[in-house]
Amino acid sequence: MGRLWAGVAAAAVAVIASAALASCAGGARSAEPRDSKSASPQRQAPASPSQKSRQAQVERHRQSVLGEIAKGDDAPDRAGLSLVSVGAKGTVFFWTTTDARYCSVFYAGTASASSCSPKPDDVISPAPALNRLHEGDVYSAQSAYGLIIAANRETVRSLSCGDERLVVRRVRVIEAGDATRTIYGVELDGRTAGILRAEVVRADGRHTETLPLGITADEVTAGHGWQVCV
Fold first, then answer.
1. Own/partner pairs for 67-74, CB < 8 Å, 24+ apart?
2. Structural domain boundaries in the chain
């Protein structure tokens, strides 16, 4: 497997902004992301000036999103807004509404882009699955191409584009009975087509899985700056 560079012709189709999730089980509820706990308390190093600046940006943008966008029917449930990405461009959040719809927003103070699913995402597929929820430039706060993905009844250990392992951020855990869906944020170096390859963990052990992106490798041609994962 390798990593090829290609580009989109002028008439190439637009990036798919969201993907449907498989459904079968009962109502889901949000849970705060689970963080691993160490055996004994550990002293944390003081935040650097850049970390403090980003933390301040996240909280400032969080309050602005709650006041301007995530309100009314699109207000978040008790879990609030979960951070997907933060950078010089702005901040990306994910949340679940009180009627179990999934929403995300890119917020930059003077500009924003948000979307919510039209119907409740309150079922988790009976079989393990990896799905795209959102895809595009506005799902990354870096100079990158962002994905928000959902793993049903499995957790993601790694995600790769060809031979390159990607950084995956766990955003939120959603539970329904004995089923778990984990939301992740992923950032790629620029607009990307093709297939990502994942290593996941299920109840019966480790597995490999593929995650097709919204644009296939066959839909791109050389010369326009897109990368292709194969």
1. 68/112, 69/105, 69/107, 69/112, 69/114, 70/95, 70/103, 70/105, 73/97, 73/99, 74/101, 74/103, 74/116
2. 3-31+51-229
